[in-house]
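Appendix B, record 7
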Amino acid sequence: MTGPDGVLVVDKPAGPTSHDVVDRVRRALGTRRAGHTGTLDPFATGVLPVCLGKATRLARFLGGGEKVYRAVARLGFATTTDDATGEPLGPAQAVALDRQAVAKVLGPLVGEIDQVPPAYSAKHTGGARAYEHARAGRAVSLPPVRVTVHALELVDLSGDRLELLVRCSTGTYVRALARDIGRALGTGAHLTELRRLRSGAFGLEESVLLEVLAADAGRSIVPLGRLLPELPAVRVGSEGRAALRHGRDLGPSLVLDAFPAPDVVRVRVLDETGGSLLALAVPRGIDLPAAGLKAPPVLHPDLVLVD
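Structure tokens (predicted):
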């Protein structure tokens, strides 16, 4: 069974797991090769990029970009899971806070922070997932993880309802942000709604609803040639394509554009029209004058997509 190559951005509804969404995409497009770039909790909604065909090999490059969320938290009590699916950790208390008090606790959570993941998370500890220990009633103690919160904007405060716009690095738990905001305020808090507006280069504006997947999926796929636009690109002709097919390095004579600068970490290699992604490559070269060694630079393919 074969299928398309590229990324389908799904607007995930609340309820299904990310794996459920991938299964729906597989059935709708008639392909086995599909996988998401980053899990969304079942209760969360929004952008879920699903890699298809050859794009599945690019997932590790596509899933690490900045994330943007709209989050709603309820102040007044914390829960076992840090969201509305868990059990309350105590009785609800009355909340009477103004925007200034909330804004004061948001400031220290912006920037590089050490965040303790939720006890009910997929982090490995003691030979199992943290949530497996938690569900079995075993105490869970997870070490903090360094994450970056680029922005934490207070959108609305109405009684015990707190709405935030969060821009953060991959690996950041918005549930944990809600938990820590509640602790700092002394009221407790838990996440009640989470909608991902953007994941790296993919946003809601190019997403397709899961309910109309079969009708809209085919024409909504982002092709390989449009992926990873943040990486510099070079073009090659038929000789360069042949070299890539056999895993050979690309010298300057095979590159149709200006050869990348020495400080470039990785490049996209496109066909001569610039429309098809053939490979990802890393610049290599030897220039050690003291030892009398000098070799022309090459592009070494570390991921080849051309057939």
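Remarks on this record: The two ends are 17 Å apart (CA to CA). The domain at 6-65+201-226 is CATH 3.30.2350.10 (Pseudouridine synthase).
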